[in-house]
Amino acid sequence: MKAEFKNNYIKIGLKISYYRKLKSLTQEQLAEILGCGVSFIGQIEAPNIYKAISLDTLFRIAKALEIPPHKLLYFEED
Q: Quick one: pLDDT at residue 78?
């Protein structure tokens, strides 16, 4: 993973956490929907862990959260 993209992975994880909570889902529930481990969701959402995810995973998460994938990838200019 390139260092220049670490902040983007953090932002994606924070957005996943935000939209998950909007849907009133726990990490456990989202993990069950996706068929993955709770620790994987925790790593994605943790702001101090740089967890890269594939586009397939991002699309599956967006589908589970019932949001368009671009909502996880759009970042406001700093």
A: 54
| Burial of 73 per CB tally in 10 Å (0-12, 13-18, 19+) | middle
pLDDT at 1: 63
Q: Are 62 and 69 spatial neighbours (Cβ–Cβ below 8 Å)?
A: yes
Residue 23 DSSP code? T
Distance of CA 55 to the CA centre of its chain: 11
pLDDT of residue 5: 85
Architecture of domain 3-73: Orthogonal Bundle (1.10)
Q: What is the mean pLDDT of residues 37-48?
A: 96
